[in-house]
Design a protein that fits this description.
This is Amino acid/amide ABC transporter ATP-binding protein 2, HAAT family. This protein has 256 residues and is α/β, with parallel strands linked by helices. It has one domain: P-loop containing nucleotide triphosphate hydrolases (Rossmann fold, 3-Layer(aba) Sandwich). The protein contains eleven helices and ten strands. A six-stranded mixed beta sheet has the order 6-7-8-3-9-10, with helices on both faces. Strands 2-1-4-5 form a four-stranded antiparallel beta sheet, covered by helices on one side. Bound molecules: adenosine-5'-diphosphate and magnesium ion (MG). The site of adenosine-5'-diphosphate has 11 residues, from α1.
Amino acid sequence: MALLEVRGLCARHGAVPVLHDVSFHVGRGEIVALLGGNGAGKTTVARCVSGLHRPSSGEVTLDGRDITRCDPRRIVRWGLSHVSEGRRVFPSLTVEENLTLGAYLDGRRTHVVAERREGVYRTFPRLAERRTQRAGSMSGGEQQMLVIGRGLMSAPALLVLDEPSAGLAPASVAALGEDIAAIRAGGTAVLLIEQHLQLALRLADRLVVLRDGHVILSGSTEEVAADPRIGRMYFGDGDSPDRVVPETRQAHSSPS
Ligand SMILES: Nc1ncnc2c1ncn2[C@@H]1O[C@H](COP(=O)(O)OP(=O)(O)O)[C@@H](O)[C@H]1O
Ligand SMILES: [Mg+2]
């Protein structure tokens, strides 16, 4: 049984349909990349699986349990942690305080929270060095590391990362890739939502490509990468991924 199973998901924003019959799954300990350009529907998928947006039809199961219309806090308890796009740290709080907030559902079990924090510090020693620093004073790459660390504080079986590379410098993207690989090596599955094709190709076991709310390609990374349609369908006619990725990033970037 898959860890996350999304079947026939349809969703609207107001009257506008934005997801059409989206199906894919994430196995235990797997990295699955959900790729697509701006407006493809990636964030809406993330919000549907984490209970923040109610789909109009379709089904989402986590570890065999139907979570389609569950309260987001219950979904967190059952093992799904969603790191939303935009790297939202609490800027005036320290690194340690930001991490602690990631375990708010376990807030009273202080020893559990402390153990989880130490686990995050082992995965991200840079955060340990900066535990008393205010989050707002860190670089974009460090803030991304912090929000991922905060996402790990609920001890998820599945981490959903919405465009973690957006706006990061190439060196920070490389470091992010190593961090995500380390998280998977620790047994946590990752749904990696990205526009950065190279990062996805490097990390993912399987790829799912969304365009205009439809899954247009999915399969093992090797299969999808070899499909000549990927450049055309994902990036628009006539563009090759290598040429288009940096421009796509620029158009989408936020300060790092
Ligand atoms: N809150 C919203 N209200 C209305 N339309 C929205 C809202 N959020 C997203 N959309 C629309 O839904 C579509 C998918 O958006 P989104 O899921 O954010 O895509 P992505 O994350 O791939 O950029 C887009 O056409 C976008 O304009
Ligand atoms: Mg998005």
